[in-house]
Amino acid sequence: MTTAEPLVPPSPHVPLATPGVAAATTDLTKVYGSGDTRVVALDRVGITFREGEFTAIMGPSGCGKSTLMHCAAGLDSPTSGSVRVGTTELSTLNDRQLTRLRRDRIGFVFQAFNLLPTLTALENITLPLTLAGRRPDRRWLDRIVSMVGLAQRLDHRPAQLSGGQQQRVAVARALASRPAIVFGDEPTGNLDSRSGAEVLGFLRDSVREMGQTVVMVTHDPVAAGYADRVVFLSDGRLVDEMARPTPQRVMDLMVRLPGGTPPAAESGAPSRIS
Ligand SMILES: Nc1ncnc2c1ncn2[C@@H]1O[C@H](COP(=O)(O)OP(=O)(O)OP(=O)(O)O)[C@@H](O)[C@H]1O
């Protein structure tokens, strides 16, 4: 990948990126509003997303999942604390550099497919590359398109595709630029269970077969079961983590979350999981 303008190096106050780490947050805090309307959406969250790992973020509604994803992906700015993507400390970037980082190094899959209706599937997949003035790597593109099973539908427009197929286009679009990290916000929220399973399978294949790093916010223990690990948020703090999750184990832990008193929430210390 070539970028015309080098990204600003990390601040000397922030540790350099650790090898094998795709992105990390340190003491990440996000406060919305003030006075009576003040909400601490994230409270000193430290989390590491390792390269080639599929992480699911879970927790009760309003616990800060989307805020964490938005801050980690450079879509929202923290109130305090740091976010690094690779070696880049996001707070050192101006708006233009941040836009470039999102375009070149981060892939997104949202609940709404967000495809452009006038473009074909192929044009939608390559749009971020086209906007960046980059020529698609044909072999990479072929690999992605065949992985998500879209080879026969590349000249279809979104309205001619099912919801599941549209989300496959969105997954292929997210992977097309070989981003450092792909963020998914409830990527199967609009899909029936079969299409959802397919999309989750593709995300997992991208991790296993291509070494992609994927971070996904979900409410669904079955979806979380596709991940390599699940991190649990409660009231803006990281309270637990599970490796090699199964839907049943995730469900059991979720049931305990809101009622229980997680140790990290009691201690007053920053919540940190890596
Ligand atoms: N723009 C905003 N202005 C004010 N408060 C906000 C804003 N965005 C989020 N919040 C608040 O921050 C907290 C965390 O919200 P967030 O959307 O991150 O939670 P979530 O875990 O993703 O929720 P859900 O599972 O319901 O989508 C909530 O209390 C929410 O009301």
Automatic annotation (TrEMBL):
It comes from the Bacteria. Residues 23-260 form the ABC transporter domain. GO terms for molecular function: ATP binding. The keyword Repressor does not apply. It holds the Pfam family ABC_tran. Keywords: ATP-binding, Nucleotide-binding, Transport. Gene3D superfamilies: P-loop containing nucleotide triphosphate hydrolases. This is ABC transporter ATP-binding protein.
